[in-house]
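Can you give me the bound-state structure? Components:
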Amino acid sequence: MSVLALKNVSRSFGPIEVLHGVDIALRPGRVHALIGENGAGKSTTMKILAGYQPPSSGQVLLDGRPVGFASMGQAEAQGISMIHQEFNLAEQLTVEQNIFLGRELKRGPFLDKPAMRARTRDLLDRLECRVAPDRVVSTLSNSDKQMVEIAKALLRDTRVLVMDEPTAVLTRAETAILLRQVRALREAGTAVLFTSHKLDEVEAIADDLTIMRDGRVVWTGEAAAMDQHAMANAMVGREMSDLFPAKVSTPGEVALQVANLTVPGFSRDIGFTLRRGEVLGVAGLIGSGRTETFEGLCGLRPATGDVRIFGQPARIDHPWQAQSLGLCYLTEDRKTRGLLLGKGLRENLTLQALSKFSRGLLDTGAEERALDRAIADFDIRGHRGALVGNLSGGNQQKLLFAKTMLADPQIVVIDEPTRGIDIGTKQQMYVLIRRLAAEGRAIVVISSEMQEVIGLADRILVMRHGRITGELGADATEDAIVKLAMGVATEREPA
Amino acid sequence: MSDATAPRRIRMTVIGPILALVLLVVAGALMNPNFLGWDNVTNVLARSAFIGIIAVGMTFVITAGGLDLSVGSMAAFIAGLMILVMNSLVPSMGVGIPVILVGMAVALLAGLAAGLLNGILITRLGIEAFIVTLGSMGIYRSLVTWLADGGTLSLDFALRSLYQPVYYGGIFGITWPIIVFAVVVVIGEIVMRSTAFGRHCAAIGSNEQVAKYSSVRVDRVRLTTYAALGLLVGLATIMYVPRLGSASSATGMLWELEAIAAVIIGGTVLKGGFGRVWGTVIGVLILTLIGNLLNLTDFVSPYLNGAIQGAIIVLAVVLQREGKAR
Ligand SMILES: Nc1ncnc2c1ncn2[C@@H]1O[C@H](COP(=O)(O)OP(=O)(O)OP(=O)(O)O)[C@@H](O)[C@H]1O
Ligand SMILES: [Mg+2]
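Here's the bound-state model for the whole set.
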């Protein structure tokens, strides 16, 4: 008997129907995985289940009875919690205030701060999260924010927990902790629904599995019946070949030469060389200073050091200076740094290279043609007139990619290129990155996914605590990277 | 959650201000037959011109996520300075067009300098626009009071009659302030809608981080919005001085609020990120028409002008929120 289910649910936004007759049933004490390509309708399905959006037609069944949640408060009162794909935290409040937001503990008319503090500590301990309860949320790393979100959901007595890509921003170790919590919830009889683009996680923990494609359920059943390869095939609707394209690189002239790069507070004495046609991987744990180092390099934060671009000494204090020298940084944080969520696709696409479309006045026609090309080249799916904030996460990522490449940089730093991207698109991205290299561009890929760095890069730098701890070749093993990232072995003295 | 797609959201906020303006015009025509007469129409437009020219500049500042509270006192200070300079030149240069041209140049330069100063303090020192311009508002107001020694600065009498046509004269029965206003509006609309600068303003106002990461020269764009606003304040002052031929500590009082109100009524988002110049024009016209209507009819006391304007501003913002379709 299912605790929460959708029956023949469709959902339209304006004239566009994005869910077509979806059925899904969550059972108590089972973990249900929902997988599918970007824009397949996973988030929308979850929001309807958790009462954040009403279905356009069809029914939501709670304990077998149709319900119409008028508000999310009602769904919550029924023991249904949801963790969204985007963070839903009050950035200016503390961890503790966030966790208890709207359900503060009181003693008489006053807040019972000691009790809340103790509960918060307790919850965070369970998640092995070492963040002080009085830290302001805006100062937390993405993975800590996710832990706070999870703690918030754990606080409520949940019969049904819905999690939209909870592991997208987590490291492996953190993911393992989360999965342990999920198992504990399952033991306690909670019905858990989650999505992830990491199919190994799905294989490891799911009892039930539903696969969606283009707004329809294409497969549902016991998870044990599918291995990762079969899941990937069902998601994309075709036979998936190798995830990573062949590395055919012919390194050309030196494009970027960095020495003694120091980003105060984040990294010290970084040095490396990058040639045209090369893909340089940068691995390391979250917090090892990879993002900050390259933001510093590209003029996005204060930094010192000797940088040469195509042999010429370069002084870069602002991102536009970097861009004019042919160096661009593609952010890992598409929601707050990458895209204008309240604007359309066209405005976002051309923002970084607007001068190309302007001879005094902007040539909107040329912009539209550029959008046509980007939609085709990067396989961006979604309604053309939509606001970017309404695109699915993966399609936002593709748009961000298209936007940066429109500026035609010769040297590109790509930070977490496939965060939140489905496996079919990932494959496309990898092909694309290799193609950019083959065209003679120089590419840096920062990634927390070790498989990705190994599969994609010609050389790999590993960072730890703001320093480069080693350099590995294309034949690097995961083990070797982990050792350098954790500081167990040193293959090269810090430069 | 919203299921707003771009077209729907814009439709609501577009219609709102136009509808309000049409309603006002119809009401006015019904209440007083002179309302749609040539004289009254040109009168309304001319009165709108000063605030209007400033409000066009304000549209860019607000769209880029900024604010400028100092424009009213800036106008007063520029007016005072202009009059002093012109008066002091009369003995050496005599009464003539050159003196007036020098006065105009002083006004534009002073406006540009004042705008740049606001902009530099905001972008280079990173002080809140509200604080910086609150400060400069007080400074300019007090400077003009000091220049006028607490009283009124009057333009040389002979010079005044020479200068007057700039306000009262025109071509084809359309006075100069209206013509200048129209030109400013057309240029402003084009810049906002179809140049990289306008696009950059909206990008910075929607999310400064994103703009920065997209290689937009954020500080330069924001500085430019303040400088352009200052220049436009200078231009408005040039049109305003010949009207009365004097400046005092009461000149340009509350212009900043009227300009900001016009921008908001016109559908520009106060938080920034979206602006439209033609909306601002409608906003200015609405504000001026209310005053004009109250003067022409006697249902409501003209003293209630401020109350009605205030109510309309709040209503406009409420409509904007509805327009974002929840
Ligand atoms: N508020 C909205 N307005 C318009 N279209 C929307 C809205 N929300 C979602 N969509 C559209 O519905 C479709 C499904 O989106 P959804 O976010 O459910 O995909 P998803 O499977 O979660 O993808 P991802 O893996 O990228 O997160 C997409 O085409 C998206 O553009
Ligand atoms: Mg999603």
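A couple of observations. The two ends of chain A are 62 Å apart (CA to CA). Chain A touches chain B through 41 residues (CB under 8 Å).
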